[in-house]
Amino acid sequence: MTRLQTSFYCASLLSLACHGGAAPVQEAAGHNILTEAEVRAGWRMLFDGESTSGWRVYMTDGMSDGWQVEEGALTRVGNGGDIITEDKFESFELQLEWQIAPGGNSGIMYHVIEGPRAPYETGPEMQVLDNVAHHDGLDLLTSAGACYGLYLPSRDVTRPAGEWNAVRLVIDRGHVEHWLNGTLLCSFDLWSDDWNSRVEASKFKEWPLFGKARSGHISLQDHGDRVAYRNIKLRSL
User: Fold this and answer.
1) CATH number of the domain that residue 123 is part of
2) pLDDT digit string, tens, across residues 69-78
């Protein structure tokens, strides 16, 4: 038996031992694709990597040319407005990756309801930002990963502008966790006394519907800068 054959034989035995003789779950190849294990666990893609299907501009029935699919990413390329999912969600885990331009700003909002002027008037926001070159990065409350203006991140774990950052956002019956690049940055409870006092002490007190909805759309913010999102997937909790 040659060295190559021996290596292959040992690897095959290890695979059988780990999987009890069953074929291993196939991993997703590339981006915007679920693994078989993720499908079984209830995950769904919110972006297919090829079209803007499932998304529309806030308070409209359609999509803007300011959002395009570029290299498998949902990308803000021009004036496009904030976009929202067609569907609404209550308790869920959302995972995605974002890439921001130098000096750029965007955000991920949830429990957004339509009616007010903008999504941020109803939906809490996980900040997306180039912490180094944008002035909001000087204040932890408005830096990347923060619950914008309300809960600051424990530290800065962002990668340089132009690189991809991995988000895990959990909303579980009011309990919220912001994860970025594998690090838990902040956690809090919607509608708690602490939440209510922070909202009352912030600019959000001017908007009576802010943070009140128990379910709603997910929104990606157009803040005037180039930003790209990919591998956007969600499972209900």
Assistant:
1) 2.60.120.560
2) 999 999 999 9
